[in-house]
Task: inverse folding
């Protein structure tokens, strides 16, 4: 603290209360008597924030002094989750804050209920970004996350007659106490326009943009756990310049026209695109991407120049991680800045650029690979297209040298695709312009090398790596599951596992202990009571993730219908009560996924109305799945559904959260499921279905879903029930697509899945056996800490060393 010369922040309840009062008076501008709950929430948040801000100031001072190598994590999405509870934990003020707040007539729980999570992401990729910045801070890695401060986050989902309805998410409507605006660091971003030659130079060009937009940053604090480091996530918001307001039109009464330019500018950061994994190719999205990249690179360069002057040091001091291809225009943008603005030679600029970037791929789905029509690019970013052409020409020359005369290879590898129209292939650009490329689970990285990026792996085998994803144990165990956390801490003797998650292996010695098992079960039961989704003694079976056909919620649905029919056919059977809990959003334009949601709710309603089946089977759809809801569901789950078609789910991270909290997985050999199974033990994992190789074979050899329908009576009865209208008139489309193409081999895996669910029930009948398996899942999930993920990136891709504050 001496370093930054501050007075002490409150460390006792009394002092904390003093700080609350001064914040209430001086920053909130109100009094105890007239304070609303919102005032109390804001005041508490500001007071907690001060504790982190003090550490932030010391972190910034330490970083400035050591002029370290920095990691910059560029991501179009950050799903940070609610901030208050996390920041109480990370600042160590939870205890005194609770008491101080109580003395003022409020409770922490009440105020935490007012904390709105910034939904600035769609799903896995956005949440991964949040877990990684958490772990970078925890590991004392100098890092900044860069993203977009969308006015509207991921839409709010509700059900209306069982169908998904969407409402806008104006998340900061009442203000956001966690964010520090930094208007002095605003940047100017150009779009459109044309380029002009620069006399005397063959590579440099002058870009004259046709539109100028301002980027205003604000940042959120990202504290490390158990260390003093506090990093930041810097989020950009688009604004019109002063000149974008047309005063003369306004004076003439043309109010809409007077602001139209400003509105156009501000639309860039207006809303998060709600599509997960399906590329739409809207110009505004490309604008968002360039806006993020342009603001962030200028900020990175500004920060570099605070302590350095030689461009040859740039790549030593900087590594920029691209979270999927969304920020890939950073590659031509850095070239433009170095060549056109800082006047470096092309080859020198290219060497720096290639060494600076690394790229993480999160998909294998062809429809998720971003490509932009050349004409869109040319209009919006004319100079960048020229640079891409030059990068491509030089790159193809390199390929031609290695593989002379192999024209097919050249056209596959080209950054510009020609068929059916000319498009810029962002993944190709990302591979060509980076030092390292990684997938997010072993299988995914292998399939990237062997399929989608095979030609590139031939050319540069050493560039390709795997870094298996991970999750924050602080958020997804400590905060989400306090009961389990307390038991673990008690059993291990200390809470060091929170930053050294492999220590959970020490739980193995308790797995067979009857009284420990009893406590384990009672915690799970209490978590189910809290969740209140169904009978706490029923098997709580959860499928929580975005709705997508490749994830196969429709397969889970076929199992539910089969179970429903079995119970109806044998009402006096020895049935195991089960609560099936779904949660997840479908992209608003993804009709097939929305139909699956409707059918789930229709089936759920039919079952609820059936007195024979409803004692044994309940289907719940929890609306508006987000990080906060995940934190409530995950600790209560008995069974984790990870049933994507093998070869389609890059990794999955919900699978890790659930296993870590003692849910058993029923899953395919896909993504990180494979690594979970390898670690928790195959006897503690319910495996079914085709593997990725078999799935690909099945497709090639002419898959006929009707064969399965014809040969499997239970399957036929389930589909016939849908078509006969047993669940109302919804479901024809779902059944039609299953019997028609069944793109994701749902019917091929049906029998194996049903039989595996029977094995789940057999295991559930023996509570000691089940509990033992549950304990072993937690004990052997330590590998899936994002701290390990970050350590892998740091050692093998970033080559950064920690800086202690
Ligand atoms: C280009 C646009 C349509 C787009 C927008 C969002 C494309 C993709 C996405 C989001 C992708 C995503 O969330 N992918 C998930 O990333 C997780 C973290 O690596 C993986 O665990 C998960 O398997 C993968 O689907």
Result:
């Amino acid at each position: 603290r001496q370093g930054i010369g501050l007075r002490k922040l409150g460390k006792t309840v009394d002092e904390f209360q003093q700080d609350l009062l001064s914040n209430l008076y001086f920053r909130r501008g109100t009094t105890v008597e007239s304070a609303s709950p919102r005032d109390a929430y804001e005041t508490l948040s500001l007071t907690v924030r001060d504790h982190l801000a003090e550490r932030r100031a010391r972190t910034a001072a330490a970083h400035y002094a050591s002029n370290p190598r920095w990691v910059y994590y560029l991501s179009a999405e950050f799903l940070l989750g609610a901030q208050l509870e996390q920041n109480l934990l990370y600042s160590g003020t939870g205890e005194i804050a609770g008491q101080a707040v109580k003395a003022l007539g409020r409770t922490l729980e009440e105020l935490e209920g007012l904390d709105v999570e910034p939904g600035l992401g769609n799903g896995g990729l956005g949440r991964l970004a949040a877990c990684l910045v958490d772990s970078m801070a925890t590991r004392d890695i100098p890092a900044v996350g860069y993203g977009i401060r969308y006015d509207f986050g991921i839409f709010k989902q509700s059900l209306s007659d069982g169908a998904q309805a969407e409402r806008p998410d104006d998340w900061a409507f009442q203000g956001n106490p966690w964010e520090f605006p930094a208007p002095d660091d605003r940047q100017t971003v150009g779009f459109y326009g044309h380029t002009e030659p620069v006399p005397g130079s063959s590579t440099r060009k002058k870009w004259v943009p046709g539109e100028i937009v301002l980027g205003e940053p604000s940042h959120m604090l990202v504290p490390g756990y158990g260390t003093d480091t506090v990093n930041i996530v810097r989020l950009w918001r688009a604004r019109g310049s002063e000149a974008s307001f047309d005063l003369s039109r306004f004076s003439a009464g043309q109010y809409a026209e007077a602001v139209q330019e400003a509105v156009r500018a501000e639309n860039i950061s207006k809303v998060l695109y709600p599509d997960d994994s399906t590329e739409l190719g809207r110009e505004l999205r490309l604008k968002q991407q360039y806006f993020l990249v342009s603001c962030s690179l200028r900020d990175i360069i500004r920060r570099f120049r605070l302590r350095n002057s030689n461009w040859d040091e740039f790549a030593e001091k900087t590594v920029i991680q691209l979270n999927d291809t969304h920020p890939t225009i950073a590659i031509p943008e850095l070239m433009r800045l170095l060549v056109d603005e800082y006047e470096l030679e092309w080859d020198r600029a290219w060497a720096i650029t290639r060494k600076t970037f690394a790229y993480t791929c999160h998909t294998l789905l062809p429809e998720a690979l971003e490509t932009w029509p050349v004409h869109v690019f040319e209009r919006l970013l004319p100079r960048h297209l020229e640079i891409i052409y030059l990068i491509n020409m030089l790159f193809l020359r390199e390929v031609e040298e290695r593989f002379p005369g192999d024209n097919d290879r050249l056209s596959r590898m080209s950054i510009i695709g020609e068929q059916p129209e000319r498009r810029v292939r962002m993944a190709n650009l990302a591979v060509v312009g980076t030092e390292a490329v990684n997938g997010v689970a072993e299988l995914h990285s292998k399939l990237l090398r062997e399929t989608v990026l095979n030609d590139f792996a031939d050319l540069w085998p050493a560039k390709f790596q795997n870094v298996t994803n991970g999750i924050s144990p602080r958020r997804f165990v400590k905060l989400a599951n306090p009961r389990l956390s307390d038991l673990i801490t008690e059993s291990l003797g200390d809470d060091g596992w929170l930053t050294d998650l492999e220590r959970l292996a020490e739980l193995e010695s308790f797995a067979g202990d009857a009284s420990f098992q009893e406590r384990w079960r009672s915690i799970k039961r209490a978590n189910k009571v809290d969740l209140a989704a169904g009978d706490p003694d029923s098997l709580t079976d959860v499928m929580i993730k975005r709705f997508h056909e490749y994830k196969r919620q429709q397969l889970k649905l076929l199992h539910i219908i089969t179970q429903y029919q079995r119970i109806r056919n044998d009402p006096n059977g020895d049935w195991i009560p089960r609560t099936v809990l779904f949660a997840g959003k479908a992209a608003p334009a993804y009709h097939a996924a929305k139909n699956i949601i409707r059918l789930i709710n229709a089936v759920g309603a039919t079952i609820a109305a059936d007195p024979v089946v409803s004692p044994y089977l309940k289907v719940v759809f929890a609306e508006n799945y987000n990080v906060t809801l995940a934190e409530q569901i995950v600790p209560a789950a008995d069974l984790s559904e990870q049933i994507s078609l093998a070869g389609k789910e890059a990794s999955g991270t919900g699978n890790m959260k659930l296993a870590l909290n003692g849910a058993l997985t029923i899953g395919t050999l896909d993504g990180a499921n494979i690594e979970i199974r390898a670690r928790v033990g195959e006897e503690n994992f319910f495996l079914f279905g085709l593997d990725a190789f078999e799935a690909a074979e099945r497709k090639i050899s002419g898959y006929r879903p009707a064969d399965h329908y014809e040969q499997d009576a239970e399957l036929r009865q389930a589909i016939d029930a849908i078509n006969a209208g047993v669940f109302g008139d919804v479901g024809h489309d779902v059944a039609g697509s299953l019997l028609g193409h069944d793109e994701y081999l749902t019917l091929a895996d049906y029998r194996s899945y049903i039989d595996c669910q029977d094995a789940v029930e057999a295991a559930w009948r023996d509570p000691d056996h089940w509990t033992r398996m549950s304990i072993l899942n937690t004990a052997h999930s330590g590998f899936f800490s994002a701290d390990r993920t970050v350590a892998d990136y740091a050692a093998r891709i970033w080559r950064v060393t920690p800086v202690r504050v």
The chain has three domains: 1-66+95-116, 68-82+118-239+273-367+435-468+792-798, 509-782. Residues 279 and 740 are 24 Å apart (CA to CA).
